[in-house]
């Protein structure tokens, strides 16, 4: 089987809740029917309720997909944001077509062969109370990117940059300054 994800890292790399910033990534999707097997392999990194939501992610029925996406957003926060901020976020998540959501979950999440190849400085941030992408992913990334700096943000979920912006920005500034 061909690798599903190839990447070339040309800049310092910054991981935030499992998302890679400043990397050029190309993605080849497997047959959509195979997402179940890939998702099963990812259970060690996603919260226990995440996969209960999966059918609603792919639904074209608005009455199923909107409540599902709202539940996902609620999982992303240790402290739920005010409705005037939560519902616009729900709106832009609803705009993502179901086939795109399926593509996102059809990616290979095991990139342990690629991550050790990163030679640039790396910072990993993660909310300690992340219910969507479990903090265990940080241990996995740190094990294969030994030179990575790690910042666990204690009072934040998946959206640590939103919930604890001062802590997040301070850590990011310190990382950037460390680059000289």
H and E order = EEEEHHHHHEHEHH
User: What share of residues are in beta strands?
Assistant: 5-15%
Task: State the CATH topology.
Answer: Rossmann fold
How far apart are the termini?
41 Å
Average pLDDT across residues? 78
Which architecture name does CATH use? 3-Layer(aba) Sandwich
Radius of gyration: 17 Å
Count of structural domains: 1
Query: What's the main sheet like?
Result: 4 strands, mixed
Level-1 CATH class name: Alpha Beta
Which runs of at least 5 residues are low in confidence (pLDDT < 50)?
Answer: 1-30
Give the helix tally: 8
Tally of DSSP β-strands: 6
Looking at this structure, what is the CATH superfamily? Alpha/Beta hydrolase fold, catalytic domain
Strand order of the largest sheet: 3-2-5-6
Query: Which word captures the global form?
Result: globular
Can you describe this structure?
With 180 residues, this protein is α/β, with parallel strands linked by helices. The protein has one domain: Rossmann fold, CATH 3.40.50. It has helices spanning 35-41, 54-58, 62-75, 83-94, 98-105, 136-144, 160-163, 165-178, and strands at 5-8, 13-16, 19-21, 24-27, 122-127, 149-153. The chain has a four-stranded mixed beta sheet with strand order 3-2-5-6, sandwiched between helices. A two-stranded antiparallel ribbon has the order 1-4. Helix 3 (62-75) packs across helix 4 (83-94). The termini are far apart. Mean pLDDT is 78; it is low at 1-30.
């Amino acid at each position: 089987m061909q690798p599903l994800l190839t990447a070339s890292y040309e800049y310092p790399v910054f991981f935030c809740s499992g998302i890679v910033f400043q990397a050029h990534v190309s993605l080849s999707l497997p047959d959509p029917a195979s997402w179940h097997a890939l998702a099963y392999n990812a259970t060690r990194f996603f919260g226990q309720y995440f996969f209960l939501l999966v059918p609603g992610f792919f639904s074209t029925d608005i009455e199923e997909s909107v409540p599902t996406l709202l539940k996902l957003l609620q999982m992303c926060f240790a402290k739920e944001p005010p409705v005037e901020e939560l519902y616009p976020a729900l709106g832009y998540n609803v705009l993502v077509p179901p086939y795109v959501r399926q593509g996102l979950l059809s990616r290979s999440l095991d990139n342990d062969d690629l991550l050790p190849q990163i030679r640039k400085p790396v910072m990993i941030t993660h909310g300690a109370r992340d219910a969507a992408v479990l903090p265990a992913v940080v241990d996995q990334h740190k094990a294969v990117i030994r030179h990575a700096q790690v910042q666990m943000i204690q009072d934040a979920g998946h959206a640590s940059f939103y919930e604890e912006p001062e802590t997040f920005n301070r850590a990011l500034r310190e990382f950037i300054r460390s680059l000289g």
